[in-house]
Amino acid sequence: MRPDAVRAWRDQETVRRLSRYRDIIDGKRIAKYLLAKDISCETPLDDSTDTLWKVHSQLHDEFVGYVHAVDAGEPRHETEDGRSFLHLKNELAWRILRECHFCERRCGSDRASGQTGWCKLGPESRVSSAFLHTGEEAPLVPSGTIFFSSCCLSCAFCQNEDISTNPNAGMPVSAEDLAKLAERLGQDGAININYVGGDPVPNTHTIIGSLIHQMSNITQLWNSSMYGSSEAMALIADLMDVWLPDFKYGNNECAKRLSGVDDYFDIVSRNHLTAYQNGEVIIRHLVLPNHLECCTFPVLEWVTENLPDCMVNIMAQYRPEHRVRRNPDDYKEISRRVSTEEMKLAFSKAEDLGIYWRTVS
Ligand code: SF4
């Protein structure tokens, strides 16, 4: 155990901002995905997609009230015929997969039938590694981290290019396999199940399917670049307890040039708001060299205004990797590490804004 992973919980602000997560660790509250299994879905799952989304919206409202009630000490109830809100989400995830719009690239490929989209993934999810991670933010350690292959962004400086650009990295997993993996990580001492990659977004169907088979009261954590579609976010928002989102860019232009996606700031800020309204959030912001004015400062300002109770990890570990390392002349402004002076400016901005920030080595 890392010493600061123990010390983190002596900090009252950390406890306050991650109070539900802490209570799940202590067995005082129930992980949301388990509570989603308590909400009955009476509508047949072969109904039209429009109808299923309407039912999803109604059950979401019921679910939010139920979580508050159980958190306040009211007893849980069970579904009557075993078809739950979680089963409805699973069905909707597979419908999304048939004309894939798990992320805002919205390729429309029928991945369920074997077509692939921009991320080069078909129906199968692959896990490149899964282990007890001791390098995550202190309150998350030890984290049962599951790395999925492929990604929906194309970051020029990706530090995980071996898995993010290779959809065939690792081993294929079914929903049942993934559940066994998660249960084993919990038995080995993980205090959360951490879905990352690459990115978990293209694997939403497998992750939701696995939650039908998982049974442990353990925090579910979404560790993502947050380029998911509004529909994927609606499915996941009720199931994740803690969010570990990346917020890289403060505008759409830097994102287009460095990560190859449109409307980044609009989509990612929207998804951060959804996460914040539905769970506890530790934002990761990787400081890029020469991107303070255009990215770091606007991100920190937006967070201050919109997510006042979240935590922020301001990260200094940028390295020129992947396309930046191979073609530094194409990416001159980020072809070096971030300087000490730049990090001081980032920290100073966070202090001025009153952000509750921490760094993790
Ligand atoms: S996850 Fe995104 S990139 Fe992959 S096929 Fe679906 S919409 Fe396209």
Instruction: Extract low-pLDDT stretches.
Output: none
Structural class: alpha/beta
The termini sit apart by 15 Å
The CATH topology turns out to be TIM Barrel
Instruction: Tell me the total number of β-strands.
Output: 9
Helix content: 40-55%
CATH architecture: Alpha-Beta Barrel
* CATH class (first level) name: Alpha Beta
- Tell me, briefly, the overall form: globular
Bound compounds: iron/sulfur cluster
Features:
TIM Barrel, about 10% strand, about 40% helix, about 350 residues, binds iron/sulfur cluster, alpha/beta, single chain, 15 helices, 9 strands, 9-stranded mixed sheet
Short description:
The chain is of the alpha/beta class. It contains 15 helices and nine strands. Strands 3-1-2-4-5-6-7-8-9 form a nine-stranded mixed β-sheet.
